[in-house]
């Protein structure tokens, strides 16, 4: 409720907070029995977590009373969890809710971890956690132990083992939750957590030694959890040891614990974890120890009967390759690379999806270690990739991993030719087959793969232009993107290419572009066509001749029927890109072509552009559009271009008291929205001011530290009154105002053509500030000022321009 009205918390919650908190604390202290159980304690902890997160200032005075019972719950729950779940030596007495559903004991543990998580990330409470971090980490390691259920499941299902133990896993368990909390502690309390972890590791190793001496078969779980913890925070440990802030002999630990645990007779899970841990600490081992680890890894891949050890061997290969390649000493791997590749290929032939994903990810690293070895074995690697592609072309994850390996191979001239020899005939047969002979979507995936090969290879490329008749949207889009790759990477080859009938490659590309722009095809086929046309103009413009006029008319025709913002933006940006390179030419073309409403196409395009500019997305696309508009404004003012000055578009919306009230549909139809009418150059200036405001907001959001949750409801009365009206200053918030959205992370930003454009790295705020301050010195500026609304005037005053 505080998100909507901060005063509600002050009036309704704060007066009742003391009694409510005391009742919650008392509920935590009641032993499990008739009146309390883990389900009730979970709900109590959830309530306390919400309070600690949202009203930390008010909860500070009760924290002393809360921490005692929470700590007691954490410690007593650990013993119960180990006995009932980790080692399954006792039956869990899980409570049942009113609906008859069993409330697992794990839910209470999750809630405890969430409570601690909130404390650590709250500045006011972080110091309290810091004091007991060593004891806290000790108990976290208890919770990180493998359970008997996990062992049983993973032993029979290696895919589940790979998925659950992946650092980016979507699975959730007490083990993963404890690991996540450890990572948070290391991030928020780095120095204290490093020291606390070393102390906890020592205690656990002593505990495991006692278990082992007493004949407890579960002793190995403690070692496994210790190695998991240390390997997960490797960077922190090595950094603090190197700086002298932490006394921990990593090499001795590897020698005395990790190498000793490689014996598979103890447990395949322990041996596998030891391999993984050794690969994580490659920089801390001697050459002799490294050699022992590599021998054990090769043996695990090729000879171990346990799928767990073989999968762990794959993980270890990735770790060792990544370390040795990064350290500049890949030579240590050379003697083992043939056996490693044998093991990976043999395991891949019998692996299912998750294990296969891990193998391909590891292959991508292996092929980057030694260029000569990769070139000598490119045939085997290409055959593996092609087999996976054919078998799993409907699996986007596996296809993406195959593409990663293909990129690595194509980047090497020694491998590219062999790879193309393997792949191209298969891709060609897929593309040439009738749609009823191949699985749905396979042709689109084949085109995507061909695009990857083209983008990753060094020209000259193989002549692989082919005709493909289809009406499938995905296939059309991917085909257009594939041809764009050809045009961008090897334009001379596209121009020089001739088929048996004498048709040039450029004719084929233009034919595809016009098909994508045809009014008869779906609107969504034109989603990326603007990029293709832009690439054609940039890279082959001198060879287009009359085709340029044909393409620009087709873009105009498609734009007239486009409704989707993505398509409109993509098509408008074709003209925006031309403004950068051929301003006079594009204005002349548009002015000489009739638009859909009887006026010129210039009027139509700028009406569309100006009405949609504030909705455009993608940092690069916004830069292209904004800079193009600035060039148009500069040209229109300095050249006194009558073609532009005669265009009138919508300015600002006019709001009336009647319009502000809720109206029926018939009333809205009878009294539609009203807008001011302004010259197009004025509208462009207003849009540039809006782009500047958005750029300023975006940069401020990046520079400022993320607002702490603890300030959410503090000082709410005065703050709400002071800022309440200011929050309404702008009717539309910039994209940076939305959590989780960052225009710089849009997928389009990774487009190689965009990254090669100087505009990609342009500081838009600086550019627009310079442009507008310079324009303000022009005599024509005074004619623009009366059209500016208060918000636009405020933005100008913020950069020193007086209106």
TrEMBL record:
Ranges for the region named Disordered are 699-723
Quick check: keyword tRNA-binding in the entry?
A: no
Gene Ontology terms describing biological process: protein import into nucleus
Q: Which InterPro entries match?
A: ARM-like, ARM-type_fold, HEAT_IPO9_central, TPR_IPO7/11-like
| The keyword Protein transport belongs to this UniProt entry's keyword annotation | yes
A GO cellular component annotation here is: nuclear envelope
Give the UniProt keywords, A-Z. Answer: Protein transport, Transport
SUPFAM superfamilies (alphabetical):
ARM repeat (SSF48371)
Per UniProt, residues of the Importin-9 central HEAT repeats domain are: 133-376
Show the ranges annotated as biased composition (Acidic residues). 703-719
Q: Where is the Importin-7/11-like TPR repeats domain?
A: 464-648
This protein is called: Importin-9
What is the gene name?
Ipo9
